[in-house]
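A common beginner's mistake is to predict each chain separately and then try to dock the pieces by hand. The better habit, illustrated here, is to supply every component at once so that their relative placement is modeled jointly.
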Amino acid sequence: MNTDLRDAILRAVDEGFDEQIAYTQKLVSFASQRGEEFTIQDFIYDDYAARGFKMDRFEMSEAELTNHEGGAPFAAGHSCAPIVVGIHHPKEEKRRSLILQHHLDVVPVGPEDMWEYSPYGGEIVGDRMYGRGAGDMKAGAGANVYALEALKRIGLQPASTVYLQSVVEEESTGNGALQTFLRGYTADAALIPEPEENKLARACSGVLWFEVEVRGIPVHVRQMGEGANAIDAAYRVIGALREIEAKWNAEKDQHRGFEDEPKPINMNIGIIKGGDWGSSVPAWCRFQARISIYPGQKAQDKLREITDHISNFARGDRFLGQNPPRVTQNGFNAEGYYLEPGSEAENTLARAHEVAFGAKLESFTTPAYLDARVYALYNRIPTLCYGPVSRNVHGFDEYVSLESLRSVTKTMALFIADWCGTEAI
Amino acid sequence: MNTDLRDAILRAVDEGFDEQIAYTQKLVSFASQRGEEFTIQDFIYDDYAARGFKMDRFEMSEAELTNHEGGAPFAAGHSCAPIVVGIHHPKEEKRRSLILQHHLDVVPVGPEDMWEYSPYGGEIVGDRMYGRGAGDMKAGAGANVYALEALKRIGLQPASTVYLQSVVEEESTGNGALQTFLRGYTADAALIPEPEENKLARACSGVLWFEVEVRGIPVHVRQMGEGANAIDAAYRVIGALREIEAKWNAEKDQHRGFEDEPKPINMNIGIIKGGDWGSSVPAWCRFQARISIYPGQKAQDKLREITDHISNFARGDRFLGQNPPRVTQNGFNAEGYYLEPGSEAENTLARAHEVAFGAKLESFTTPAYLDARVYALYNRIPTLCYGPVSRNVHGFDEYVSLESLRSVTKTMALFIADWCGTEAI
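With all components supplied together, the output reads:
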């Protein structure tokens, strides 16, 4: 890329950055927890249409998704919000097509009194923009738009097809991203600006979600020996699951990209509910678990390993033997992936990053779910998960670094110009 | 008591028993969980008035109750339903006055699909009447009325004042019973027909209710080491509480009436709730605990022992040391009692029981809360907790034995005639 074009792109990102910040704040202002994403997706639809994209909007199909090996069950709470795709066609297809993707669902805010800043306020203090989803990943969603706007500002547009995909269900199933694949969308590469600390995700784990329910005969607490406390029993099942977690962590040396992670496999008990009355021995307890798996492992194989282990444990337990816990998969059924180094897409991103940051692009392993798995595993295209610095993602006072976002947007604009080529509008 | 009167009373109970069963079913048909007892207490008010009692109805006073050493805090969910007292004055006070008490609040039914019978149906199958509260203690509430009705059926009434007390909050605080004391009610003895297996409660434990809340900084599960899982932390606190439970159980030899109980002190974790999202490390977890204490121990002393133990444990825990658990007393603040054997009231009950059952009256220790503690500890009167056979109290398909109820009602009618004397209506 010639120096003039490069400098013009960098300047254009700077010139549009105030507008980009305001746009990101607008996105943060939508409460878009699971099932609530209708208004933000409608905003996106109208916004992209106004920016000149051709628009496609479609539903997630339970039949199609649950027939696919990477699809997750439609449990209670599954979003019905649409998936939105904005399509840019160049005057002439000159180089390589690209998918720019983001998700706009966010996780719950938790007890609001534990926030110093308003969860949907998008408040800016110094370099930080605060809010649920500010990092994960509304800043990235804004960057997808404003990387393209930077080119427009200097009279250019990509010289190849670009798909701007706005999805939901990233935080619970990954069904939104998978539906774009099932709809037939593909390209020569995909870029997803998740909050990745200005780095490239080299590998990400798969994730399983499941609920465990324990039920048993309750009694008055004075006869506690006769009854069985479902809350105590649930805790014993959690203990058995910790054995699985330890076993899988002990296998990390066999998994490329995970050898140096201190604890690549995390099992999280994210929600627990049980019992109805202080002086009644609880008859029921349910908990929601999330566990990661290594790339290359099949989600259903690992789920079976979990259910078998719970069954074996339960058989040896005086209470659980009579009341076997019920395990229900109620979300992620996702494999992980490993991004082979050396692709032309990665090399292009690395060059752009070096210009924007004046430093080499680093890569790292993330023991989290990424929608990137859909493009890596099923589209089988180079998939670049790369995005800004953030903190407290899924926590309180989540924020994104604005200077990081500015530089990441520069990388993205340069990457698009290089990967797709440019043409005059 | 002469044989003719005795036989007439026994016959009168039999003759009224179908009506008594229908009345008990009517009581069971009221869903009267905590806070819902308005309609059943209004039914009682109208019913007692129609039966000729002078009526008193009053509120539980938060100020009065929380100033009393046996009063429990008014936590969320505390009932506002009134306390109802029906008063019988004889033409001439000849013998000894009596309090007949029952509570009409019931505990939650739990998941309804775990019931074979309808929780509020009062269905009768053979000897059993099923329903939430059938045993605990709507059968007793009916017996209080129909023991007196048996006398009326043969033209008699007690020759002393009788207070028929219908209270609430027995399952959570005992504040209803305590309010009758604070209102000034007292008598020469009290009888409470709780479901006690045709036996007399010799001793009952005190009970404490408290909630423990753990909060901590949550993070995305990929950074689990940085955050702290409040659900895991809550289970560690439960472990520390089990140490208290074991310590107190080891002291049972020092407590009259509890030496032979296999496990006199039960700590029950009755409710647990925590977390908002499967893939977020939970920031909060709350659980509701209930623990018993021995008679003679002060509730506040034992609560302090618990909070001190939790504090000490927390100080040594990497996460809890930074995020001390909050302990809130949110119910029972009750001492237990020991009924001194040999009172005239007990002897009178024993004679009546022997007539009704043809067997000696047995006594036993119950490691549960009983409203009887109010009359034993504060009124300082002989308090007889004695009532029918039941099963699955606080559980599913709770039922009361009707033949047991019939005989218990006979005991009660004989007891009243003997204790209070009789006069022609």
